[in-house]
Amino acid sequence: MRVAQARRLVISDHPLPWLLPLVAILLVFTVYPLIYNIWLSFHEFVPRRRALEFVGTENWVQLWNDTRFWQSLVITFTYFAIALVFELVLGMAIALLLDSDGFGFGFLRGVLTMTLVIPPAIVGMMYLLMEDPQFGVISYLLQSIGLLNSNNPILATASTALAGVLVAEIWQWTPFMVLIFLAGLRALPPEPYEAAMIDGASSFQIFRRITLPMMSKVIAIAVLVRGIDLFRVFDYVFVMTSGGPGASTYSLSLYAWQQTFSFVKWGYGATLSLVTLVIILVIANLFIRIAKVRW
Amino acid sequence: MNGSVSARMLRTIAAWVVVAIFFFPIYYWTSVAFKHGNDIFNRPPKLFAFTPTFDNFQKVFGISLGSGGITVTPGGGNFYMAPRVWDSIVIATLSTVLAVAIATLAAYALSRMNFRGRHSFVGWVLSTRMMPPVAVAVPMFFIYKNFGLIDTYTGMVLIHALMNLPLAVLLMKSFFDDIPSEIDESAIVDGASRFMIFRRIVLPMAKGGIAATAVLCFIFSWTEFLFALTLTTTSLKTVPVVSSTFVTSIGTAWGNMAALGAASIIPAFIFILLVQKHLVRGLTMGSLKQ
Question: Fewer CB atoms near the end CB (10 Å): N or C, chain B?
């Protein structure tokens, strides 16, 4: 009786006062910018009159006909896909390797954590120096084994610039996957493995038939969290290439930012950032549905 | 897995090699911080054989290593970055406090109270995490300009707190979910109010979780780039943004930049080691428990 009463009290308590500060700040800082962006996408700044003018759907028409936008969309998707595949595969391989209680393995896991606390902008700078055609240690290495021509600086050649940025990205975030996968691997129950051993399964079969299926939830969450960030990539390209050479490393976020702040195209910049937002929301929510990720 | 000695040896060696490859850029960057210019601009790159110098740290932090030990002389110059480090610390600390305070309150309600639309509310909080920073930074730039919030601690603290809120809410909720709600119920039977339970019982029990949340918020604010780049101009700058100052028309001051970069890793790394137990849960916004 008393328990039932208490339960009722717990349920009837009003959550509003607890949620109010959160709701307020989320409304002001996410819903308002969203509305403002939508409004802005139908306007454009006119430098001559130093004012915003209503331009109707002009920005949206321009977007549709803007080859640079489509190009940056392709670049963002390419970056997203390549980085995700590399980080997943390398992350899983290294996690399997480090999944041991042997001496020193805890230390090694700790060292890997280091990459995660460095500001990505500074990581970009690090790789800018390491990929310098003359003094960079990566360039030197690649040149001396004949993989790189010294006339083609990695970040200043259109065909290799994106790869140069991706190296920094993959270096910094593969350990993120390793740590998540390690936690997943350590939580796996031992029984299926024992049964598989008795049946004489090969280690590849065990991985393919037992580890992977049991890790699917962990993998899905890792893909979602990392994928969201990958699609918004800005720091590395801003610092390392500013989108160049040509437009070979323009990500959507960078393109939107530059339209607003470098070219004073406020309306068009807002249109671009809205499109980025919509793409992320649609893909992420579809993924959450399909992979049945739950919070 | 495999019991044989040689297989274990092989695995240990492979593990050390892989981690060494990942550690190498950090080593190299730190070594640049201790190098003279001519050792940085050398071909082939010098990895181990160079004369270490403390000049870069002196220029960037005013710290010099003399015969009488370490002396600190706050200096001027374009590359004197100690105030920028201070800016970063203030912004990261205050935004962390704000985000954790708001998130803890909300997470308690989301974990303990049953109300209509709770699931959609969690979904909404999660979806704010998906907003590209550029879509927030552009409108905020105009708003901040109107309210005089550009270049202010207030402005940066608010935006970084906002950025960390989805993570902090979901993470704190997962920690509260771990605490059995029977504890709350029996306290209510004893006549305690909701807030009293929250403050006296649940908060102390979730201490470890709050610490982990705070550390992650701190690090994400510490490393954040786009908001800091957009919403500060001159008098206030954070460490990631200021790194581009070293790129000048007469070349890049790599040594100085490396000194700043190397120093900026240390506090974050110490923090993250302290909460390593909860790290994975934090990185996945509370959805994976270790």
Answer: N
Contacts of A135 in chain B (CB under 8 A): 40-43, 45
Boundaries of domain holding B170: 82-283
Show the tokens assigned to B54: 């403390």
Could you tell me if residue B141 is inside a domain?
A: yes
Task: Say whether both B154 and B124 belong to one domain.
Answer: yes
Q: Which fold has domain A67-291?
A: MetI-like fold (1.10.3720)
Number of alpha carbons in the 13 Å side-chain half-sphere of residue B226: 24
Would an 8 Å CB–CB cutoff place B99 in contact with chain A? no
Q: Pick B185's closest partner by Cβ from A3, A26, A187.
A: A3
The per-residue pLDDT for B290 is: 65
Domain-embedded: residue B289: no
Are A274 and A38 a contacting pair, CB within 8 Å?
A: yes
Quick one: tokens of B12?
């240990």
Distance from CA of B170 to the nearest CA of A (A): 8
Per the CB < 8 A criterion, the answer to whether A95 and A176 are in contact is no
**Residues of chain A positioned with their CB less than 8 A from the CB of B240:** 119-122, 235
Q: B-chain residues within 8 Å CB-CB of A294?
A: 287
Q: How many CA atoms lie within 13 A of A59 on its CB side?
A: 27
Give the global pTM. Answer: 0.90
Beta bridge partners of A43: A54
CB contact under 8 A, A5 and B230: no
Residue of A5, A9, A25, A30 to mutate when probing chain B, most B C-beta within 10 A: A30
Q: Do A115 and B159 touch (CB under 8 A)?
A: no
User: What pLDDT is attached to residue B68?
Assistant: 62
Give the CA angle between residues B39, B42, B45 to the nearest 5°.
95
Instruction: Kindly state whether residues B87 and B171 are assigned to the same domain.
Output: yes
Residue B138 lies in a domain: yes
Entry field: residues in chain B? 290
B61, with CB counted inside 10 A (0-12, 13-18, 19+), is buried
Is position B241 within any domain? yes
Q: How many domains does chain B have?
A: 2
Q: Residue B169, Cβ neighbours under 10 Å: how many?
A: 30
